[in-house]
Design a protein that fits this description.
The chain is of the alpha+beta class. It contains 4 helices and 8 strands. About 25% of the residues lie in helices and about 25% in strands.
Amino acid sequence: DLVFIEEAFERLLLDYDRVFSAMGVPACLWRRTGEIYKANREFTELVGLEGYMMREGRLCIYELMAEESAVNYWEKYGHVAFDSSQKAVLTSCVLRYKPSPATSSGLSVHGSGPISPNRLLNANLNPNPQKGTVSSAAKEVTPVGGEEVKKEEGEEVQTEEGFINCCFSFTIRRDKWGIPTMIVGNFIRC
């Protein structure tokens, strides 16, 4: 059964290759545990990360969300995950722009694997992160203080985190037994 489920997941990934290449809306898909397996170019630009980070479960969707948004996502997911009559949810979220490799709590994005939802919720994260806005080109971040940070030719990319308010919908794809196998999310900047 596990092999069948994994094969079905891989088939769905192939189906979404075509969909994501033709879609102009930032989108990504992840397993029910949160590991991102595919994202389109628009989504990588929205969050300011390289495309390779959005493959093979290297990064989790809740690692790209502000803490309150991650909690909100898991609550909404929990309400509809095993209710076969519900398929999609429309909500809002705050995404992190250029999230740093290690959060302020010392939890690693690249190190020991994905952060579990329980570790994320119980982590002692900074309660007042520095908020900022991102330009439409997603190449400059404006921190709360108002100073702009731009990427100049030959310089390193800005590592300071910013935050992006988004409208967010996610659709749950289920296996033949009604168990969630994949979640597809679409994001539009507010």
